[in-house]
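TICKET: design request
STATUS: open
ATTACHED STRUCTURE:
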């Protein structure tokens, strides 16, 4: 299980509030907060829910409670850092660091009781790091974990992950792209949590992935750990393409971005 130990001099509950901050201490802070939020979420089902951008784009009371916990803890420990979170929390600080937060990635899975969802906390700016916690499996992934991406370089032998937009119109276009990709790869996986797709790519459980209509909170933590592990992840507009190595990345990028029905 890719679970890092707490760094010397850091605790899971706090980190010094210096302007830049030490990466190990900030990572330990994020790990502790992610675990707290994961525990809250695991105890929160069933939960109230409402729609956001479309009838299928759901936010739950648990999403909001987890985001409130994460933001409150970060603001207390790191008052000078900026914050950007999925459910609307936004703060502009002066430290040069920005926390990018998805308090519950995989909300539909969470609602249906499918044990495949995660808490995702990324840090960008003066310090770059990522923490993704999967409470259902008690798995913790960070940019400092011992992760080894896939060495597969043959697209035809590759297991590829993807996801779909909440917009019906966009999903129709994405479906056309998947139909073109499927004959060229080993198989497709659609897990329902982009954060976990990124973490699983970083540790070699997936060879590559692509997804359209993404947001910064979907990507920040996962991209940090993929890059730290030696994989490749790049965005074009709102499209993310990532792979365990550059050779496979280029093949998937050419296939996805040159399709006539491409969505960006």
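STATUS: resolved
RESOLUTION: sequence designed for all positions
ATTACHED SEQUENCE:
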């Amino acid at each position: 299980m890719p679970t890092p130990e707490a760094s010397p001099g850091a605790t899971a509950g706090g980190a010094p509030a210096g302007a830049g901050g030490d990466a190990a201490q900030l990572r330990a802070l994020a790990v502790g907060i992610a675990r707290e939020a994961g525990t809250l979420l695991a105890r929160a089902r069933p939960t109230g829910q409402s729609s956001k951008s479309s009838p299928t784009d759901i936010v739950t009371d648990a999403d909001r409670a987890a985001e409130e916990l994460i933001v409150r803890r970060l603001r207390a420990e790191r008052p000078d850092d900026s914050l950007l979170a999925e459910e609307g929390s936004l703060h502009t600080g002066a430290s040069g660091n920005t926390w990018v937060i998805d308090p519950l990635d995989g909300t539909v899975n969470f609602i249906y009781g499918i044990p495949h969802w995660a808490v995702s906390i990324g840090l960008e700016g003066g310090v770059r790091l990522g923490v993704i916690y999967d409470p259902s499996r008690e798995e913790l992934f960070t940019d400092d974990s011992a992760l080894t991406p896939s060495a597969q370089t043959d697209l035809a032998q590759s297991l590829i992950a993807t996801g779909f937009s909440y917009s019906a119109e966009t999903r129709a276009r994405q479906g056309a792209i998947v139909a073109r990709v499927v004959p060229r790869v080993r198989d497709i996986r659609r897990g329902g949590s982009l954060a976990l797709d990124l973490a699983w790519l970083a540790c070699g459980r997936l060879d590559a992935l692509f997804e359209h209509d993404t947001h910064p909170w979907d990507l920040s933590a996962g991209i940090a750990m993929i890059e730290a592990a030696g994989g490749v992840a790049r965005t074009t507009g709102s499209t993310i393409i990532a792979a365990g190595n550059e050779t496979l990345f280029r093949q998937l990028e050419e296939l996805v971005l040159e399709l006539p029905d491409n969505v960006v």
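CLOSING REMARK: The radius of gyration is 18 Å. Residues 3-18 have pLDDT under 50 and may be disordered.
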